[in-house]
Amino acid sequence: ALALLQLSLYLRVPSRYGKHEERLCRPRGRLPARCAWFLQELPSFLVPALLLALRSPPRLEPLGCRLLCCLFCWHYFYRTFIYPFFTRGRPFPLQLLFFGMLFCIYNGFLQGYYLIYCAEYPNDWCTDIRFTSGLLLFLLGMGINIHSDLLLRQLRKPGEVTYKIPQGGLFTYVSGANYFGEIVEWFGFAIATWSLPAFAFAFFTLCCIGPRAYHHHRYYLKTFTDYPKSRKALIPFVF
């Protein structure tokens, strides 16, 4: 339901931060991008860690369950403690930060609680085709996401706020390469866990950042006359 609401709100009008903020009213309260991203992503790492610490005795058996929980925390460790300190984005609106934190608290609890308290996997889950294929998709998506973030950071020198055409990597084919990577990542996680909470999160991710990739694509086409016409918005060769 949250995913469909998000899709209906932002399919026509982009959320008001980053390159889309100039065309809309500027919010009054904003935080530096590094601080805002750290605060927003922290609950998704901290909440599952606290759930695990409070579980006595820890319930992360068999090995497949431990690996799945580690995948989720691994992504948000990167997003919380590495990505914010390298980002060069513009100040972030406090209103969006607040709603982002609420979602990360809820989703961190949902995914962590399921894996730590509810999930039941056979001892040979690590060899199941759903786990192995999902893990490969997760790693592929995370690799694309991190590499695309690196390419975006290299577009700007320290202190610059102007936007440039992304080049290299999957940006050769799509305008939202970083978003495409994250969508692939979470659908891989959903397949590996084979659970309703994870599929709900993957669907939310698609509905949340899919429209943003579309608006980025439109922005580039309108702003840069030399923008490659062959690029798609999100999915190579399709959309």
TrEMBL record:
GO CC annotations, alphabetized: endoplasmic reticulum membrane
Membrane-topology descriptor: Multi-pass membrane protein
UniProt organism field: Mohoua ochrocephala
Protein name, per record: 3-oxo-5-alpha-steroid 4-dehydrogenase 2
Keywords of this entry: Differentiation, Endoplasmic reticulum, Lipid metabolism, Membrane, Microsome, NADP, Oxidoreductase, Sexual differentiation, Transmembrane, Transmembrane helix
Domain named 3-oxo-5-alpha-steroid 4-dehydrogenase C-terminal: residues: 91-239
InterPro entries associated with the record: 3-oxo-5-alpha-steroid_4-DH (IPR016636), 3-oxo-5_a-steroid_4-DH_C (IPR001104), SRD5A/TECR (IPR039357)
GO biological process: androgen biosynthetic process; cell differentiation; sex differentiation
UniProt-listed Enzyme Commission number(s): 1.3.1.22
Organism classification: Eukaryota, Metazoa, Chordata, Craniata, Vertebrata
